[in-house]
Design a protein that fits this description.
Elements: H1 3-14, H2 26-36, H3 41-54, H4 58-63, H5 66-73, H6 80-94, H7 104-107, H8 115-126, H9 135-144, H10 154-166, H11 173-186, H12 205-208, E1 225-236, E2 240-241, E3 244-245, E4 256-257, E5 260-263, H13 269-276, E6 287-291, E7 297-300, E8 304-315, E9 323-324, H14 335-344
Parallel strand pairs: 1-8
Antiparallel strand pairs: 1-5, 2-9, 3-4, 6-8, 7-8
Helix pairs in contact: 1-11, 2-3, 2-8, 8-11, 9-11
Organism: Pontimicrobium aquaticum
Function: Adenine glycosylase active on G-A mispairs. MutY also corrects error-prone DNA synthesis past GO lesions which are due to the oxidatively damaged form of guanine: 7,8-dihydro-8-oxoguanine (8-oxo-dGTP).
EC number: 3.2.2.31
């Protein structure tokens, strides 16, 4: 039994029952793939179900407000995925007259869709002969064939794509692609894989050489930077606060946050007061400041760690840009802000 037959046979027995595996609808498959990028199925499944319920067609998603899409996405992180999803839905609805792209080449034109996502949709929905290569596939192939080329290098990305393409069966491409991804997720796990009961054990070179724990190989990550965030939570006597929209490009673009003071080191209350003296948001003659969290909250992102403090600023009145605290939960915010809002219980 050849490599791909072993995997598809294993998949037919062990695959998880997931809603996007019950359809060939490219919109549903696309939605699931975008949600599950850098997100585990357990976390992503409720979001998928909510999106399908709220936006049952690509036209429904296209007609939604971006703020509503971001609010629904809140908690998943990597918010550029949601912005790209909405942008592409509008592109499909208006430019393509609601017709979803029907091949790999056309799928790549969608914003936020790369080789992996285009390959997944094209093979699952249209049985196009294009291989998927995600983290799970990298792991299976690097171990089975004992490939030490770093998977996050230009050479590695090209090498593994070529190999994956060569291994494709002549038919049932979508099932095979899902099989190798599922196999990597459930059987050939990153740590403590069940090699003793692995159907690929006999041909696995890494197993024979006792190299399972060393593969796949990766180049060292860039150094993670450290930043200090001080959020000013304004509270007025008439039940107002202030949220600001982040308009600059970045992971939190178009999300809302409390006014932010970013610093190179941790600030004490005197430093916050000096900053407040230069703001027009409040009457500096009549306010009080207190620190909400004595211990900094460390919010870890892929490229930076945010050491965060929330400062409560109480005052009689606020500027015209203020909002009612009763409406604060209607705004899309980063999970860091969302967690604070829940804890503070406005």
């Amino acid at each position: 039994m050849i490599f791909n037959n072993i995997l598809t046979n294993w998949y037919s027995i062990h695959k998880r029952d997931l809603p996007w595996r019950e359809t060939k609808n490219p919109y549903f498959i696309w939605l699931s793939e975008i949600i599950l990028q850098q997100t585990q199925i357990k976390q992503g499944l409720p979001y998928y179900e909510t999106f399908i319920s709220k936006f049952p067609t690509v036209k429904d998603l296209a007609e939604a407000k971006e703020s509503d899409v971001l609010k629904l996405w809140q908690g998943l992180g990597y918010y550029s995925r949601a912005r790209n999803l909405h942008y592409s839905a509008k592109y499909i609805s208006s430019i393509l007259n609601g017709q979803f792209p029907k091949n790999y080449k056309e799928l790549l034109k969608l914003k936020g869709v790369g080789d992996y996502t285009a390959s997944a949709i094209a093979s699952i929905c249209y049985n196009e002969s294009t291989a998927v290569v995600d983290g799970n596939v990298y792991r299976v192939l690097s171990r089975y064939f004992n490939i030490e080329t770093p998977i996050n290098s230009t050479k590695g990305i090209k090498e593994f794509k070529i190999l994956a393409q060569q291994l494709l069966p002549k038919s049932n491409i979508g099932d095979y692609n899902q099989a190798i991804m599922e196999f990597g997720a459930m059987q050939c796990k990153p740590t403590n894989p069940n090699c003793k009961e692995c159907p690929l054990q006999d041909g696995c070179k890494a197993f024979a050489l006792n190299k399972i724990s060393h593969l796949p190989s990766k180049l060292k990550k860039t150094k993670v930077s450290k930043k200090h965030f001080n959020f000013l939570v304004f509270l007025s006597n008439d039940g107002k606060t202030i949220l600001e929209k982040r308009t600059k490009k970045g992971i939190w673009q178009n999300l809302y946050q409390f006014p932010l003071i970013e610093s190179k080191k941790s600030l004490a209350i005197n430093g916050i007061k000096r900053q407040l003296e230069n703001t027009s948001l409040i009457n500096i003659e009549n306010y009080s400041v207190s620190l909400y969290n004595e211990k900094e909250i460390i919010h870890k992102l892929s490229h930076q760690h945010l050491h965060t403090k929330f400062w409560i600023v109480e005052t009689e009145s606020l500027s015209k840009n203020s909002i009612d605290t009763a409406d604060i939960k209607t705004y899309p915010v980063p999970i860091l802000i969302g967690n604070f809002i829940e804890q503070f219980n406005f």
